[in-house]
Write a structure and sequence with these properties.
heterotrimer, A alpha/beta (426), B alpha/beta (175), C alpha/beta (320), A: 426 residues, alpha/beta, Urease, subunit C, domain 1, TIM Barrel, eight-stranded mixed β-sheet, eight-stranded parallel β-sheet, B: 175 residues, Rossmann fold, six-stranded parallel β-sheet, two-stranded antiparallel ribbon, 8 strands
């Protein structure tokens, strides 16, 4: 393993309350020292980070790699390259792969593929129920031993609350984190956009805010009943933020994240019938967006994820309701986070914590910080560097982003995963 | 004939007398007169009266039959033609104000034949202007004229019937 | 999105939705239709305006009535017209829609008239079809049905002449109706004084008032001083999806009866896009009565469709 010396960067490590220019020393794939000089350190590689920010590598709580099973949309190889270029050094893979992550064989397959792709930290999330069918429990304990960091039913519905209650009880017996998308499927009514003025104007079936807030309320009660550690993924509305805030006040053991694009787009931003904006949960109103931002700033929402969902062209080619939802978003994660810093929604340190320290703590892994002894997962980025979302710069196999053609500020220059340089900006 | 002799009433008189002659040579006993909207209709109204034609005057708007639709589009003010129920076996006198390229007459004939097979059709115009583009000619006219291509003739009326010659440039600047 | 429907010079290229079209364009459609009205009354109900043009009616959703009026409109303009019914299953995807379009495009079609069960299908086809082809929306999902709305505007203008003093009530299933969305946009663009929508909350979309209408849950209150009453057809399946308890109760609460009609202006006209559910949304005595203009709507439908077809095909060489 090589010794790496990163010099002269502005080191921001929220977990250790560091925001100072200096050196970072890496040896044997681990963080050796931050700021404090090491005598006789002979670096194999020296990275000059002048004018750049050096921070913990990002941990993304939801990245669809489309592999195994849907490799026409993206492969583990293509999507981990995209993630590395975005400074993401650890990513959670939701269980809705094909086959579903509900056996050890699938987790082994994923580990093999990750190894071949030279991307070591793919964290599979196990299915909460067998085949994600929402009826029978998956073999959670076995899957945990096989390396799954949490259990989730992805976007698939559960048969009823009894199944959920038992799944949460069982998960908590094995000290497993349960990740839930709050969604009351019966209220969705085949919706494809937020139920509001936009859906009314264009005659598109709408998903009411209540679909999410009712689910949040139910899941919160079950978390209280079962004592299960619960994480809400990708919340989208004001009422959900308020309920989570209250529950936290009462000491229920919950956390929440939001998809980065939900902090930037509302129903008003949707170009009519442009399927790049088709996403679930749907873009909601300005009030919801403001509350999400507020929740992020005050810590009600713990983390930001990309909710990366690459698609093939055909999946997005059609009339809006019949296209598949989802945005290829991992590469716009950092620049969009920096926009929140720019408009003073959060501080830079907060933003970095939401992408590293906080997701690590949600998952209960020793990562997301530049603590000596931790794996050297490091992201170096230039906050002022502009780049365009175009064919030349884009790495993901999915071109499905509403930001196609736009120019962003903030670009990763180097990504290190366990002390190995997995991305360098050319 | 020079421009300043474009007296509508003189031309009308001449057309009337020519038509009267045709009545006998072509054996027009119970003719049906049709004026082409809008200039032709004005003249037809006058001639219908002067020649004391019994059958109701027909008015034809050939907008829907024009061959320049893809370039110029349709005029939303187009009125459908008011033609008698029976055109089959009729002796038809088709009246227009100016015969120039012949395309209007072509369109009018097409419309007439859509309604059936007339016995004969006679084309009578107030002014025949040099510039034919199709092999059609009026049977009789009030006069002939040669004008530069950038000029246009427009008939206004009915009271008084006036013939105006405009240069296309001035028309454009006027609109 | 309005640009999608217009050429660079502002001429009508596609007719997909009323939204984004100016009052001038809508009025021009009405005026043009006026000139076509007489053709259907002539002995020879045909003019050669679109001779040599090919119009394909692409019906992904079955509707004999609408298809027939489009076919007649095309025939009366001397265009060659073929109708294709494509029954789609719920699982069919955009690829097959696009493939259908591409295949027909290769046959040098000039106009696609499209009806589809999914909102946005018209936009999708207009965006993905060859540049010389015009797309006319004959109804897409719950989004728009602009030719139906325009024939309603035409019928209103025949009876009321000016739009700016009119009070119009639209009664019935507002939520699922593409016609109503287009009617509201057209009425607002043409500048009516007031539009009222009347329905139980289960049949009203959220934020409907933002479309520029006032909302009533009570039919009696809504009828006062109305010039135009537009009844919306109630689909039978609304009863099975917990939106309404029964047809009988619906008629009791929202049906147009003779007594209720007296609450509107004495010269109010009653419209209905058809087919009528007698005794469900409207009493037979009104449907067949002197204030009903329902059959005129049907005749006007042909003229409006002739107008839209010719307007989208004119000035073709300027098309983008």
């Amino acid at each position: 393993m090589k010794k790496i010396h990163i010099t002269n960067g502005r080191i921001i490590d929220p977990a250790n309350h560091i925001d100072q220019t200096g050196s970072l020393y890496i040896a044997d794939g681990k963080i050796l020292s931050v700021l404090n000089p090491i005598a006789d350190f002979s670096a194999d590689i020296s990275i000059d980070a002048t004018n750049n920010i050096v921070c913990p590598g990002f941990i993304d709580l939801s990245v669809r790699l489309r592999d195994p099973g849907q490799t026409h949309k993206g492969t583990l190889q293509s999507e981990t390259i995209a993630a590395a270029s975005a400074g993401v050094t650890g990513l959670c893979l939701p269980p809705d792969t094909q086959p579903v992550i509900d056996t050890q064989a699938v987790t082994e397959l994923i580990n093999d593929k990750a190894e071949k792709a030279n991307y070591s930290q793919v964290y599979p999330i196990a299915a909460l129920t067998y085949q994600l069918a929402g009826k029978e429990l998956s073999s959670m304990a076995t899957l945990k031993q096989a390396g799954c960091v949490a259990v989730s039913n992805a976007n698939a519905p559960l048969a009823n609350l009894l199944v959920l209650r038992r799944a949460m009880e069982y998960a908590s017996s094995h000290n497993l984190l349960v990740i839930l998308h709050p969604e009351e499927h019966s209220l969705n009514n085949n919706g494809c956009t937020h139920e509001g003025f936009f859906s009314t104007r264009y005659g598109l079936p709408g998903i009411p805010e209540a679909s999410e807030s009712i689910a949040v309320a139910q899941y919160l009660e079950l978390a209280r009943l079962t004592g299960c550690r619960l994480h809400f993924s990708q919340i989208s509305c004001k009422a959900a933020v308020i309920k989570i805030q209250q529950a936290k006040k009462y000491g229920i053991n919950i956390t929440a994240d939001v998809a980065i694009h939900q902090l930037h787009l509302t129903e008003n931003d949707i170009e009519p019938f442009n399927s790049s904006y088709h996403v679930i949960p749907p873009f909601r109103t300005t009030k919801d967006l403001q509350k999400l931002r507020e929740g992020l700033a005050n810590g009600t929402i713990n983390a930001i994820c990309s909710d990366h969902q690459p698609h093939d062209l055909d999946a997005k080619l059609g009339a809006f309701p019949e296209t598949e939802p989802g945005i290829a978003s991992v590469e716009t994660l950092l620049p969009l986070m920096l926009c929140l810093v720019e408009d003073n929604t959060i501080t830079l340190s907060q933003g970095i914590a939401c992408l590293s320290q906080n997701p690590a703590s949600i998952l209960g892994i020793n990562s997301g910080a530049l603590t000596p002894g931790f794996n050297a997962d490091v992201c170096i980025f230039n906050a002022a560097l502009s780049w365009a979302v175009n064919q030349q710069n884009w790495k993901s196999a999915g071109l499905n982003t509403p930001y196609w053609g736009e120019v962003f500020k903030g670009r990763v220059t180097h990504t290190l995963q366990s002390g190995k340089i997995i991305y360098t900006l050319e | 004939m020079s421009n300043n002799t474009l007296e509508a009433s003189t031309l009308l008189d001449k057309l009337e007398s020519e038509l009267k002659q045709l009545f006998s040579t072509r054996k027009l006993t119970q003719p049906l007169m049709i004026g082409i909207h809008s200039g032709g209709a004005l003249i037809a109204k006058e001639l219908h009266q002067r020649l004391a034609i019994e059958k109701t005057l027909g008015i034809m708007d050939i907008s829907f039959y024009r061959d320049d639709f893809p370039q110029t589009g349709i005029n939303s003010k187009t009125k459908p033609s008011q033609l008698p129920m029976q055109m089959e076996n009729q002796d038809i006198i088709l009246i227009d104000d100016v015969f120039y390229t012949g395309r209007t007459a072509r369109a009018a004939l097409n419309e007439i034949f859509d309604y059936g097979r007339p016995n004969q059709v006679i084309l009578a115009v107030l002014i025949e202007r040099y510039g034919r583009q199709v092999p059609l000619r009026p049977d009789c006219s009030g006069g002939t004229i040669t004008l530069a291509e950038d000029k246009s003739i427009k008939l206004t009326g009915p009271d008084p019937l006036t013939i105006n010659v405009k240069s296309l440039d001035t028309q454009l600047s006027a609109t | 999105m309005s640009n999608l429907q217009l050429t660079q010079e502002g001429h009508l290229k596609h007719f997909i939705t009323i939204e984004g079209l100016s009052k001038e364009i809508l009025t021009n459609i009405l005026d043009t239709a006026e000139s076509f009205i007489g053709i259907s009354q002539q002995q020879v109900k045909k003019v050669p305006l679109l001779r040599g043009k090919t119009i394909v009616n692409l019906f992904f959703e079955n509707s004999t009535r609408t298809r027939t009026t489009f076919e007649l409109a095309a025939s009366r303009l001397s265009a060659d017209v073929i109708s294709i019914d494509i029954q789609t299953s719920a699982t069919s995807k955009g690829e097959s829609l696009l493939d259908t379009i591409r295949n027909l495009e290769a046959m040098h079609v000039d106009i696609f008239v499209v009806r589809h069960a999914i909102s946005g299908a018209g936009h999708f086809i207009a965006q993905n079809t060859a540049p010389h082809i015009s797309v006319i929306n004959a109804g897409d999902g719950q989004h728009a049905h602009p030719t139906q709305a325009m024939l309603d505007m035409f019928t209103i203008r025949q009876h009321k002449h000016e739009f700016n003093t009119l009070k119009v009530g639209i009664i019935g299933d507002i939520l699922h109706s593409r016609v109503v969305r287009s009617q509201i946009q057209a009425l607002n663009t043409l500048g009516v004084e007031e539009i009222r929508v009347v329905a139980p909350k289960t049949l009203l979309p959220s934020h409907v008032e933002q479309l520029g209408v006032s909302v009533f849950n009570n039919i009696e209150e809504s009828l006062d001083d109305l010039d135009v009453i537009i009844m919306v057809r109630l689909q039978k399946e609304r009863m099975t999806s917990a939106l309404l308890p029964s047809e009988r109760e619906y008629f009791k609460c929202f049906g147009l009866t003779d007594e209720r009609l007296k609450l509107a202006k004495a010269d109010a006209i009653v419209m209905h896009p058809g087919p009528i559910n007698r005794g469900v949304e409207i009493a037979s005595s009104i449907a067949d009565g002197p204030q009903s203009v329902i059959l005129q709507q049907v005749s006007n439908g042909i003229a409006i469709r002739m107008a839209v077809m010719s307007l989208t095909l004119q000035n073709k060489e300027y098309a983008v």
